[in-house]
Design a protein that fits this description.
The chain is globular, with a radius of gyration of 17 Å. The two termini are about 25 Å apart. It has helices at about 1-10, 30-45, 60-65, 65-75, 85-90, 95-105, 115-120, 160-170, and strands at about 20, 50-55, 75-80, 110-115, 120-125, 140, 145-155, 175-180, 185-190, 190-195, 200-205, 205-210, 215. By secondary structure, it is an alpha/beta fold. Strand 9 and strand 10 (about 190-195) form a beta hairpin. The protein is built from eight helices and 13 strands. The chain has two domains: about 1-115, Rossmann fold (3-Layer(aba) Sandwich); about 125-219, no CATH class. Helix 4 runs parallel beside helix 6 (about 95-105). A six-stranded mixed β-sheet has the order 6-5-7-8-11-12.
Amino acid sequence: MAGFDADLLATTGRRRPRVVLVPTAAFPGGEADRVRWAADGIEHFSALGAEVEALPVLERGSADDEALTQAIGEADVVYLAGGEPGPLLAALAGSAVWFAILDAHARGAVVAGCSGGAMALVDRVMGMRAGRLPWPLRWRDGLAVVEGIAVLPGYDRMPEAVAALLALQAPKGTAVLGIDEGTAVVGRDGSWQVHGTARVTVWRGRRRERLRAGDVFRA
């Protein structure tokens, strides 16, 4: 994703944009996973010419830390790590750091998410039910930077029949974006454009649309 991320940094118009990484979703894998993800993110964006900081937002208490909130206020790009969306939602929803992210976005900062981070950013988040039978799916509120959308990351890694079954269980009126590996969607002013090497599959109820790099759609 280096090419895509370089283009994303270029949209800030800064010679040396400031990127703030929020690794909360990676934390369920353990402290070692969080540290590794943060180090990888710093190395990746530094190589692209950015000034990078990874914030230790691990749970709700740290998400209300004033110093971390200030770091968000100085960001040109806020990037939410991949991993599990549940802990990310529990930590950020209603927190000082989250309100700082919204303020940064309102003044023009880019807000991006990878995998579980992308799942949490939109309106509805898919989750499995506990117990022997996981169906029907459990849907919870996301951070709702964009309303009326749910995200299925790594869409091309699952059989199409399974992906369709997941998408068809989305709440009524929700567009489900199935995003393949190596692929991203960028939203601006209500429209989305596909970037990357593979496809985005948009489910609106039983209607399916396949899109590739350069295609623009409204969800």
